[in-house]
Every structure is written in structure tokens, then in C-alpha cells.
Amino acid sequence: MLSGLGWVDAEAVRFDQNGDPGLKVPHMGWNEVVPAKASALTADFPADARFYFAHSYHVKCRAAEDVLLGVSYGAGTFTAAFERGNLFGAQFHPEKSHRFGMAFLRNFVERC
Fold first, then answer.
1. d(CA 83, CA 64)
2. Among 27, 83, 93, 110, the one annotated catalytic
3. Choosing from 11, 55, 83, 95, which is the catalytic residue?
4. Contact of 28 with 81, CB cutoff 8 Å
């Protein structure tokens, strides 16, 4: 468990294979995301927005209102992106996520 800078009430947690022995770590590949709240960062996203992930850890927000996007992986879900005030974080690689990543980056530059 890693605490980070403390700007967001969250921690970085390694994926746990004990709960799901079939879970591959690192998690690599494409996943559809599910919005947890409305945001300028995800405005006009299509319902099937998907992003490319390559990671062994994920951020666990303690405050549900900080979660922006969620994603299912294995038997559970994890935070794919968070927003707290003017702080944003994404677990995926927008630069490798084609049109969905470009929309994400465009919204960040133009709206945030």
C-alpha cells in the first residue's frame, strides 16, 4: 500500500490474485469505463468509451465522490479515473487509447 502525496484521500493498492487466481497481473488491455459522476473531463463521451490499461496497482479512493470513472476487472471493480477539485488522475493510457483518449485529452485542455 502506498499513500502518495496526500492530495487525494486514496491509496495505491496492488491487484490481489488471492481473491481471484485467474486475475492477470499486470492488468494489460482494453476495458470499457463506467462514469461515476458528470464531469467536464468526460463530457460528450460515448457510452462505449474504452481505454488501454497497463498496470499492477490501482488507486482506491476513500471518498466515493472522488471517483470519476470505474472499470470492472476480474470479480471486482477499480477506479479508472478520479477528480477532486482541480486534481485529476487516470489509471489508463490516454495516449494509447485512440479516439477515446484523444477526447479525454481534448476535454482536459479545453474544458478543465
1. 10
2. 93
3. 95
4. no
Strands (E), the chain: 10-14, 27-32, 34-35, 50-55, 57-61, 67-73, 76-84, 87-90
Task: Judge whether 32 counts as a catalytic residue.
Answer: no
Cβ partners under 8 Å of residue 84, min gap 6: 7, 8, 63, 66
Tracing cell 465522490 back to the chain, one arrives at 65
- Reported as a single tens digit per residue, the pLDDT across 93-102 is 999 999 999 9
Annotated active-site residue 95? The verdict is yes
Q: pLDDT tens digits, residue range 15-49?
A: 987 777 788 999 999 999 999 999 999 999 988 99
For 94, the grid coordinates are 490516454
Q: What is the CA radius of gyration of the chain?
A: 14
**The model's pTM:** 0.89
